[in-house]
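In this section we walk through a basic example: taking a raw amino acid sequence and producing a predicted 3D structure, encoded as discrete structure tokens. The instruction is simple. Fold the sequence below.
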Amino acid sequence: MAVSKLAHHVYNKLSELNVNMRKLNEDYMEIWKDDIFLTWRWWLNIAILVLPWLIWFLLRKKDSTYRLLLAGFFVYLVTSILDSIGITFGLWFYMYTPLPDLHTYYFPWDFGAFPIMVMTLIQFKPHINPYLKALFFSLISAVVFEPVFAKLGLYVAVRWEYYYGIPIYFVIFLLAHSLACKKDFKGITE
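The resulting token sequence is shown next.
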């Protein structure tokens, strides 16, 4: 019986939290419709999301497409999770999102620019040491892009310093590089 009372107590708390979250999402939807949708920052987000993919599609090494996409998907997955964690813990938030229901991570960066930058760095000049590429990528991402996005009013660091991201971006790049450069992929057999 004690478990049932506890389960009921947890259910009541989570039900109340769910109502509050639904209300917050409705409030966000109103802000998005009234103040975000079709503004120049909204269009900039659309460009950050779409243009890198179009350019990559034209410039990619066609025989490496699937390896690069594997690395890009990995980057998208990891950055989306880390973005959600950062937003959940109040470390940062994003001011303008392309869709109202994608405000728990920054879709244009996590799905657009970020994976494309990694795939492009992996693909071009493959003889360059991946640690140098990872350092370049992490510094550009943390020291250039994050402050620029903040100046543009797209990103707000609340309890986060830009340089905190350097080792994170470094590791993400190296893991993605490792995935893309694996030589032991085998065919699927029956």
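Looking at the output, two observations stand out. Residues 40-180 form one domain. The chain has two domains: 1-36, 40-180. In the next section we compare this with other chains.
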